[in-house]
């Protein structure tokens, strides 16, 4: 899995109910053809990141097939989640 493009947006809480900050990342990822996640039109992963204190963490993620915008019922492997979290942390540090 390789992240080819992304967008990042802070999710604002006007009620101040949520502690810390929340971010939404939308990641375009390139998947090998032999991977069960592979779709010809491409895959997008929507990741919600929480930041409380010094350590960001993944709150949730959703995998979507780009052509139809359908959610796919797959779980990412631990290594893939670690790779995504490391990418998101790096981009948050730049912002």
Automatic annotation (TrEMBL):
Database matches in InterPro entries: DUF6509
Superkingdom of origin organism: Bacteria
Pfam families, sorted: DUF6509 (PF20119)
Name of the protein described by the UniProt record: DUF6509 family protein
Organism encoding this protein: Lysinibacillus irui
């Amino acid at each position: 899995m390789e992240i080819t493009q992304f967008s990042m947006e802070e999710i604002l809480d006007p009620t101040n109910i949520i502690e810390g900050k929340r971010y939404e990342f939308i990641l375009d990822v390139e998947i090998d053809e032999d991977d069960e996640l592979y779709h010809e039109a491409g895959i997008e992963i929507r990741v919600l990141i929480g930041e409380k204190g010094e350590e960001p963490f993944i709150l949730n993620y959703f995998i979507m097939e780009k052509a139809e915008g359908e959610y796919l019922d797959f779980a990412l492997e631990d290594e893939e989640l670690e790779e995504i979290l490391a990418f998101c942390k790096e981009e948050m540090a730049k912002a």
